[in-house]
Design goal:
By secondary structure, this protein is α+β, with helices and mostly antiparallel strands. The chain has three domains: about 1-30; about 40-110, Immunoglobulin-like (Sandwich), CATH 2.60.40.1930; about 120-290, Glucose Permease (Domain IIA), CATH 2.70.70. The chain has helices spanning about 1-15, 35-40, 125-130, 135-150, 280-285; strands at about 45, 50, 55-60, 65-70, 70-75, 75-80, 80-85, 95-100, 105-110, 120, 170, 175-180, 185-190, 190-195, 200, 205-215, 220-225, 230-235, 240, 245-250, 255, 265-275, 275-280. The strands form five sheets. Strands 11, 14, 16, 17, 18, 20, 22 and 23 form an eight-stranded antiparallel sheet that branches. It has a five-stranded mixed sheet with strand order 2-9-8-4-5, with no helix packed on it. Strand 4 (about 65-70) and strand 5 (about 70-75) form a beta hairpin. The termini are far apart.
Length: about 290
C-alpha cells in the first residue's frame, strides 16, 4: 500500500509538470511564449482620430517604444504603465497612419483628418517690426527657453481638464497663417486672448514654474512644466507673480495681462508644447488626456 500510494503521488506530480490533468490524464492547452506576449501587450492611442497640429496620448502596459510618422518614440514609465504625448505635425497630410510597438508585437492606427487654417493679417510699426531682426537677442532668449524645457517630471502634475488661463476675446486661434505688414510669416502656433491690462492670468493646470522673466519678443513670460514633457507658456504679461521652481495649482493667479514685447495691444499669448513642439491647446480644455476619446 505504501509503495502504491507513493507511486500514485509521483505520477500526479509528474503529470502536473507536463500540464496533464490528474483526473483522466487529459492534456490542458499550453500557452506558448508568443501567445502569452500577444495577450499581455496592449497599445492604446487617445484620440484615434485627430487633426494636424493636435496631439496624441499613447499608453501601454508593456511596450517601451512605439513608431509613428516614421519616427520612434520612447515611452515614459508613469503610474504603472508607459505613456507619451506625441505631437501631430501641423503639415501632416490627411491619411491613416500605422502606430505600432517598436518590436512590432502590437499595432493600431491613427487617422489624421483634413483641416484648414485661416489667414490672420496684422499691421505693426516699422520700429516694432524691426524687433524681429535682432537675431542675437532672439537667439539668446531661445537658449533660455530650451534650457527651461530640457527636463520634465516623469509623472503628471496635471489633474483633469485644463482651464482657460484668462477670460476675454479670442483674437487669433491656433494654426492661423500670420501675415505681418503684408508679408507671410510663420504660423501662429498659440491662441491670443485679449482683455484689459492687469486682468488676472491663472495657471491652466497644476505644474512647476520653469521660467518666469522678461524676454525680448514675448515680454514678461512664464512657462510651466505639467509633467510628461507637457508645457504651457504665458506671454506679454504686464506682471509676473511666480518664480522659477515654484509649484502652482490649477486656477492660481500667476501674472497679469499686458502688452510687453512684440505686441500690438493687451492680450495673453497662450501656448502649449510637447517638448519644443507647439501643439493645439484646445483638446486639453475639453477633458483630461486620460479621458480623450
Amino acid at each position: 500500500m505504501w509503495l502504491s500510494a507513493k507511486v500514485a503521488s509521483l505520477l500526479i506530480g509528474f503529470s502536473m509538470m507536463l500540464g496533464v490533468s490528474s483526473i483522466g490524464l487529459a492534456v490542458a492547452p499550453v500557452e506558448t511564449a508568443s501567445t502569452m506576449w500577444k495577450q499581455q501587450v496592449d497599445l492604446r492611442v487617445q484620440p484615434a482620430r485627430t487633426y494636424p497640429g493636435d496631439v496624441l496620448f499613447v499608453r501601454s502596459k508593456n511596450a517601451r517604444a512605439v513608431t509613428l510618422f516614421q519616427k520612434t518614440y520612447n515611452l515614459i514609465p508613469s503610474s504603472g504603465e508607459y505613456v507619451r504625448f506625441i505631437p501631430v505635425p501641423i503639415d501632416t497630410k490627411p491619411a491613416v497612419y500605422p502606430l505600432q510597438t517598436a518590436d512590432g508585437k502590437a499595432r493600431t492606427q491613427v487617422t489624421v483628418q483634413p483641416k484648414t487654417f485661416a489667414v490672420d493679417a496684422i499691421t505693426v510699426s516699422q520700429q516694432m517690426n524691426s524687433m524681429r531682426q535682432n537675431t542675437a537677442r532672439i537667439n539668446a532668449d531661445q537658449q533660455k527657453i530650451y534650457r527651461a524645457r530640457s527636463t520634465s517630471a516623469p509623472v503628471p502634475y496635471f489633474e483633469g481638464a485644463f482651464v482657460m488661463p484668462v477670460q476675454g476675446r479670442l483674437t487669433t486661434p491656433y494654426g492661423y497663417q500670420r501675415v505681418v505688414n503684408g508679408k507671410p510669416e510663420s504660423r501662429h502656433l498659440a491662441i491670443d486672448i485679449a482683455n484689459k491690462e492687469g486682468t488676472p492670468v491663472v495657471a491652466s493646470n497644476n505644474g512647476k514654474v520653469v521660467l518666469a522673466e522678461p524676454l525680448y519678443l514675448t515680454g514678461n513670460t512664464i512657462m510651466i512644466d505639467h509633467g510628461l514633457n507637457l508645457f504651457s507658456s504665458y506671454a506679454h504679461l504686464s506682471k509676473l507673480e511666480v518664480k522659477p521652481g515654484q509649484l502652482v495649482k490649477k486656477g492660481q493667479v500667476i501674472g497679469r495681462v499686458g502688452t510687453t514685447g512684440f505686441s500690438t495691444g493687451p492680450h495673453l499669448h497662450y501656448a502649449m508644447l510637447i517638448g519644443n513642439t507647439f501643439i493645439n491647446p484646445n483638446p486639453f480644455f475639453s477633458a483630461s488626456p486620460y479621458q480623450w476619446k
